[in-house]
Input
Amino acid sequence: VKETQDGCRCCYTAASQLDVKNLEERIKIDDLKEALTEIFSEYGTVIDLVAKKNLKAKGQAFVVFEDVEAAERAIKEVQGFELFDKPMLLDYAKTKSDATVQSEGTEEDFESHKRRRLAEKERKQAHQAAEEQKKLKRPAAGAAPDPATTRPTKASRGAGLKSSNPAAGAVVPEEYLPPNKILFVQNLPEDYDVDGLTAIFGRFEGFREVRLVPGRKGIAFVEYEAEAGAISAKESTSGMGLGDGSKPIKVVYQRQ
Output
């Protein structure tokens, strides 16, 4: 809920947020955002407008109005309007924007929203990576099966450790593993023990324990009660420099 200068209290709901699709992808992001802001500001106050450069989000934008009436007018009048020679396709957004969550709830609500959004993004990345690996591993039509890849193999003993066996099937890269409550930490300085790692990872919600791997230096597992704590810890500590050399640590989710 936000109080404007004239004393009006406004609540941004999902109905005040629009997805805009079929935008010209070759236009620079800044130019696109400027054009969209100019168009949608005719229908009400725009409190947030998001357009991104990444491949999956190209051709799309996210517009948040201060009130539902403005969004309703825009979706009726701008639907099919040509921008850079392409008709825009508008629909009500299915998820709340960061600006909406910030205005409606507490700081805790906002942090929870960001963790869920990050987790969903990482799940999608993991799924896409797995599909790409399957395509690479799939034999050509009519090709004889390779005995080296069809021979039964033993399961990898170290959960979270990447298998070196090329016949183990499609392996999702560590960076795209889906979120879970256990983190796999690598590149640790040799002098870091359980206490030192607990001081770093123990400040996140639901921390349970740090487990070192006997006979293996530079790696550890960190467990939380739920995904939320692991997501926050990974986001905050990945790439952190530890030790005299300040070599960045690598933090990924445990391979299930």
Observations:
- Residues 44 and 70 are 5 Å apart (CA to CA).
